[in-house]
């Protein structure tokens, strides 16, 4: 079989395009759904923290987190059907353990530091969640790390410079940002 | 010296193999997911997959999950090897330009 250098170049280009698209597709095709779900939860949760009494806002967060966790499990199961691994349990279990331990460490950090208000607690939780996001990014999709850095920077900005509007800030920019990013990924992959 | 592989060189089959070798060695992709990724029709993809399966370059598994049929496709070790050789051959042609 003989082909010209131009044909060889075109074939190599086609290969590169498909490989890049596959990597992008695998990294992002499921991420957008998680971003939209958790963005909505942040939007509703932080709006509640801003406008509801602390007790009701707390219950609101618990309900939203349970709902988000349940939806995430369903999404994770559906994603696994697109690309299967012959050894999915090991990696899935490790990821599950990682998040469980991270939340335990987050709880311990809050317990030790004894935040004076809900805003400090929320900021600590955000920092731990973003740390987890970045760890997952290093493991699964390096490109997603930049979004975790942007959200962390926005959260810190709101925490230090807009303390009176921190929850609204996080609802709109954090939650809204995640929803917008999810929709952007969905329309661009 | 690596040689070009006629089975793989066909445009759609080349794209199929490129997508499959991007997956980890222990991963396999769902048929509909692959069709969407490559933007080809059911029949077209099915025909090219059969060719690749006959050549031993891919492994096709048909399973039932929650009473629904699913087809999973993965590159075989032989498929990964010939694809790599094909890419090397293409690069060699390009270098000798």
Question: How would you concisely characterize the structure shown here?
Answer:
Chain A is built from seven helices and one strand.
List the helices and strands and how they pair.
The complex is a heterodimer of chains A (189) and B (97).
Chain A lengths: L4 H24 L2 H21 L2 H27 L2 E3 L2 H26 L4 H23 L4 H17 L4 H23 L1
Helix pairs in contact in A: 2-3, 2-7, 4-5, 5-6, 6-7
Chain B lengths: L5 H4 L1 H12 L4 E4 H8 L3 H14 L2 E8 L2 E8 L1 H19 L2
Antiparallel strand pairs in B: 1-3, 2-3
Number of helices of chain B: 5
Low-pLDDT runs of 5+ residues of chain B are: none
Count of DSSP strands of chain A: 1
- Span from first to last CA of chain B? 17 Å
Based on secondary structure, the structural category of chain B is: alpha+beta
Return the average pLDDT of chain B rounded to an integer: 90
| CATH fold-level assignment of chain B | Arc Repressor Mutant, subunit A
| Total separate domains of chain A | 1
Low-confidence spans of chain A: none
Major β-sheet of chain A, in short?
none
Q: Name the CATH superfamily assignment of chain B.
A: Winged helix-like DNA-binding domain superfamily/Winged helix DNA-binding domain
Largest beta sheet of chain B: what is the strand line-up?
Answer: 1-3-2
Count of spatially separate domains of chain B: 1
What fraction strand of chain B? 15-25%
CATH architecture verdict of chain B = Orthogonal Bundle
The secondary structure category of chain A is mainly alpha
Q: Give the biggest sheet of chain B.
A: 3 strands, antiparallel
Describe this structure in words.
Chain A has one domain (5-188). The two termini of chain A are 35 Å apart. Chain A has 7 helices and 1 strand, in the order αααβαααα. Chain A is mainly alpha-helical and 189 residues long. Chain A has helices spanning 5-28, 31-51, 54-80, 88-113, 118-140, 145-161, 166-188; one strand at residues 83-85. By secondary structure, chain B is α+β, with helices and mostly antiparallel strands. Chain B has a single domain (6-95), classed as Arc Repressor Mutant, subunit A (Orthogonal Bundle). Chain B has a 3-stranded antiparallel sheet. The radius of gyration of chain B is 14 Å and the shape is elongated. The model of chain B has no long low-confidence stretch (mean pLDDT 90). The A-B interface holds A 1, 3-5, 8-9, 11-12, 14-15, 18-19, 21-23, 25-26, 81-87 and B 3-6, 9, 11, 14-15, 18-19, 21-24, 26-30, 33, 37-38, 65, 70, 72, 87, 90-91, 93-94, 96-97.
């Amino acid at each position: 079989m003989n082909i010209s250098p131009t044909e060889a170049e075109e074939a190599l280009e086609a290969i590169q395009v498909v490989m890049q698209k596959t990597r992008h597709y695998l990294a992002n095709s499921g991420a957008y759904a998680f971003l939209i779900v958790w963005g909505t939860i942040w939007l509703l949760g932080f709006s509640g923290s801003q406008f509801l009494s602390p007790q009701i806002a707390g219950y609101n967060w618990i309900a939203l987190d349970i709902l988000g966790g349940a939806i995430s499990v369903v999404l994770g199961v559906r994603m696994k059907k697109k690309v299967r691994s012959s050894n999915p349990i090991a990696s899935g279990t490790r990821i599950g353990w990682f998040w469980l331990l991270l939340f335990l460490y987050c709880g311990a950090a809050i317990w030790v530091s004894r935040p004076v208000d809900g805003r400090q607690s929320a900021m600590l939780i955000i920092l731990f969640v973003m740390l987890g996001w970045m760890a997952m990014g290093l493991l699964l999709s390096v490109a997603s790390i930049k979004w975790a850095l942007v959200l962390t920077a926005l959260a810190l900005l709101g925490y230090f410079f807009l303390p009176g509007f921190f929850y609204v800030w996080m609802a709109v920019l954090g939650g809204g940002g995640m929803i917008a990013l999810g929709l952007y990924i969905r329309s661009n992959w | 010296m690596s040689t070009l592989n006629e089975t793989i060189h066909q445009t759609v089959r080349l794209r199929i193999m490129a997508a499959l070798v991007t997956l980890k060695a222990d991963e396999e992709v769902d048929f509909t997911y692959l069709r969407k990724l490559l933007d080809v029709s059911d029949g077209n993809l099915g025909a090219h997959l059969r060719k690749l399966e006959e050549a031993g370059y891919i492994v096709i598994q048909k399973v039932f999950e929650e009473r629904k049929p699913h087809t999973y496709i993965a590159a075989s070790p032989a498929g990964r090897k010939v694809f790599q050789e094909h890419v090397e051959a293409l690069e060699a042609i390009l270098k000798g330009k």
